[in-house]
Every structure is written in C-alpha cells, then in structure tokens.
Specification:
The protein is an all-alpha fold. It is built from two helices and no strands.
C-alpha cells in the first residue's frame, strides 16, 4: 500500500466514522467539596486578623516609629555621655 492510498483510506474512514462526541468531565472547581463549617471559618478569620495585626505592627515600628525616633534623637541637644565608673588611684 502506497502512502497516498493510506492517506485516502484514513480520510475515507474519518468521513464514514466520525469521532464520537465525548461528554466533558466537570472541572473540580465547578463542583467544590463541601463548604467549611462555621467553626473553620471563625478560626480562619481569627488567624487572618492575627497575621494582619502582626504585619501592621511590623510596619508601624520599623518603618515609622524607629526612623522618627532616630531622627528626633539626632536633632536634639547633645549631652556628654554619662560617667559610668570613677577609678580612684592610691596616692
């Protein structure tokens, strides 16, 4: 059988035997599992609030409080460092 005849036979078979329509399987996202219970939602919400408060505290301390504190400390009056220890020598 020549390649040309093989192609003709395949085309003839495709015309007489069209492919069967396959029913599409539903996606998992279209049929989700059971929704979480109320307790799960409360725990999830509490964890989200805890994380958001932590991120907000981090931002406020490191991005606002610390730079402002350092800037005000640098612009204030300069005092000599305190004397921590006095060494007495025997005379």
């Amino acid at each position: 059988m020549s390649p040309q005849q093989a192609v003709e036979n395949a085309e003839r078979a495709a015309r007489h035997n069209p492919p069967a329509l396959v029913e599409r399987m539903p996606l998992a996202a279209e049929q989700p599992d059971a929704s979480p219970s109320r307790a799960d939602n409360l725990v999830r919400a509490a964890i989200h609030v805890f994380v958001l408060i932590g991120v907000l505290a981090f931002f406020l301390y490191y991005c606002l409080w610390t730079p402002l504190r350092l800037r005000t400390a640098a612009s204030g009056p300069h005092k000599p460092p305190p004397v921590l220890a006095v060494v007495e020598t025997a005379a």
